Request: fold
Amino acid sequence: MSEIHEICNDWKSFSIKIVQESDIPRIKTYLTSNFHLDEPVGQKLPQDDEFIEHTNEKMGLLLSKHQGLSLMAVDQKSRDIAGVQLMFIWKKEDAELEKAHLTGRLNSDSETPPAAIFRQRKVMNAMYAPMKKTQLGLFDTYKVEEIGWNFVASTGRSYRGQGLASELSRRMILLLQSTKVKLTFSMFTSPFSRRCATRNGFVEIDRCHWSEALDEDGKAVMPDAHGPEDFVALMILKL
Reply:
């Protein structure tokens, strides 16, 4: 009980709570306004409402299936969502299934998505492909059967620069420490999220510069992304 109280209480002008099923519609709205359009990769891709809606639905399903693992901060005055840390449990058998798909040992029976979603997905897959071996190898490397996947770390536009991201990350770690999970990771595209993660003990084990990400035809998906912060970092934290 004391652990939950330390995680779910007020901080500055925010109320921090564990995400419930009833919060998911609001979180989808928050992500549309504060994550998809602000996240560095999203800023460089053509914006597509269909892709955003599709992604929100997938995230909503993850939140519904893995309840009790994600956090949200709410502005005490406006009651608006000020930030989120979203998490699900990735199991070794899921990674083994993905390996089978990638090596052709198992064919995917999923339907081909609409063209707009397919185009965006191809770009995103190219971004993360160079780190896929490292990611899928986490279970064997760290001798674990399940891993906490921090798939969204976001602070609302009006609430940045107040330390909220670091506080949410710190509390997310406390929440995971109350479970049996011994390892967590994320793919950080934002330099601000990377610095926040580093302050809370995450370490980088792999990265992909966006200019080096190639599509299925060997063409760069972001040939002009040569900035010093234009990369995605795979970062882990042992719990």
